[in-house]
Amino acid sequence: MIREVKAKILQQQKIGEYYFRLRLLCPEIARVAQPGQFVMLRIAELHDPFLRRPFSFSRILPPRDRKRKTEKEGILEIWYEVVGKGTSLMTRLRAGEQLDLLGPLGRGFWEVPGQKKAILVGGGVGIAPLIAWAEKLQGKKKGTKALSSSVETPAVLVLIGGQSRRRILGSKECQKMGLDPQVSTEDGSLGKQGVVTDLLERELLTSGHSSTTIYTCGPMAMLAKVAQIADQFDIPCQVLLESRMACGVGACLGCAVKVRAENLPPGVWPSAEGEGGGEYAAEGGFREEGISQPAKSLIPGIGGAPQFRYARACKEGPVFEARYIIWEGY
Amino acid sequence: MPRMTPTSENPTLTVELGPLKLKNPVLAASGTFGYGEEYSGIVPLKHLGGFITKGLSWEPRRGNPPPRLAETSSGMLNAIGLENVGLEVFLKEKLPFLRRVPCPVLVNIFGSTEKEYAELAGRLAEVEGIAGLEANISCPNVKAGGAIFASDPKTVYRVVAKIRRATSSFLMVKLSPNVADISKIASAAEEGGADAISLINTLIGMAVDLQSRRPVLGNITGGLSGPAIKPIGLRMVWQVSQVVRIPVVGIGGIVSATDALEYLLVGARAVQVGSAHFIDPRIGLKIIQGIKDYLEKNQLPDLNTVIGSLKV
Lengths: 330, 312
Description:
Strand order of the largest sheet of chain A: 4-3-7-1-2-6-5
Largest interface: A-B, 45 and 49 residues
CATH superfamily of the largest domain in chain A: Nucleotide-binding domain of ferredoxin-NADP reductase (FNR) module
Oligomer: heterodimer
Helix content of chain A: 10-25%
Order of helices and strands of chain B: EEEEEEHEHEHEHEEEEEHEHEHH
CATH class of chain B: Alpha Beta
CATH superfamily of chain B: Aldolase class I
Distance between the termini of chain A: 34 Å
């Protein structure tokens, strides 16, 4: 259920040189939101900037007691980087002010049955939704231990990468959850020198990779590399894709992501809420600028590559199974 | 049940687009409201004057490569590329919901030949539960070398007449502002047999990324919408209202009741709200309420007295 609500800003905090954290009181959305889902945030009351901005959650604290209202429950946290007009204006928001949110939207991360290990790979501010996901996986572990030791919960490994130490986020949060993240920086100012995908490859080579799932978010080039590694080791990989969005609810078709058009195996790509996930799948063929193509044939210009279609990041994503993304150009 | 007489405390917002009666003049524009379903959880559709579905073609189209959106000052560019599910999937998967919608639904259609428009209109005429059609004629005409249908009065007349022969349904023709003389185009649509005219579609624009020295949009150019285009929309609706006898529906940058009322003043019988939905899904309802408040405040019992009442 999508809601449009006014959230109260509890805290606006600068974290490091490039990033900010917004702490919002929003029990309506915090109650139902899942890691990897997002909200569309309205920054200006007037019309410049015109559009809302999508943000995923770095933390979701659902309200435990509907009657008791405290400011420690029903909370959403958003981490953001100042990249343009919208995010610059966001830095002016202050505690006590109201913020208009539309959400929760999209499909978040999902658990893979039988997984024994979850490797979370984050680049820069892309670590944010993975922190929320780690917290959920870790929280589940605690809960199930108390109830029954027979329920298997995955071991969680977090890999964090960035250009320099000032681009590394989330290690403190991981430690609070009892996780010991591995860090890499390109300039070697923190952790291992290199890129985070090197950490991932080394981990998979040295510790094995049976019943392992990768969850990742960050710059496109990094995601493409993570997807390639996952493919190489033949392990499932979920990527959270950032995309320019207008509506956030699947109406405008603005946030197109190029994906394979073949019908997807059930369970791998579950339907988005209330709608068939494969509705644009090629059954009758596509019309490309007036040229009708039979369904099974190849699209000119991409040679022997499989049929493709555009998926909506806001509805079928923003979390996708990596092997259904067409990564060309990254 | 006794009918209430409209008074300034209970003004009537009912308007007539030729044969189509609307309980209020606020419609949701094609391409900004999906198939209604996407917004049905957050917007009580029964309060809307109606909505127009995403542009439909005979065959499915997968649209343009991303990025498809660029934000601009008080507006946005889009280059979706008319992505849609195609007629077959529309009838099977979208229509059952649309039939249950408690407000009039118009289906926006387009084609790449006159024949395609006519076939699509003919097929939809057989379908129950649709209040009418809106023909988007801002598409490349394959037979005319790719020039858009909407740019030449003769082509406009021919395509509209062809659709008219294929259907007796309510037919609204949506005009492009990217033309030399909008009045001539509007007259051609009227002569062709349109029941109403809606304008304006988006203006062709472009956004550039200085750092990468590339166009922002995958399609290079896109359609500009939002508050930035309202003055152009108002001007064109004003011009067209002077020359046609059929109802005109105003579109372009409407984000408030004031904007909507301005369009009505210059001659629009109804309005379409477009990209404002992306910021505020319930904007249509707020505009309807705002129009009501305006009528009450000014002690006007009937919205129709406002329409075309611009003092020049």
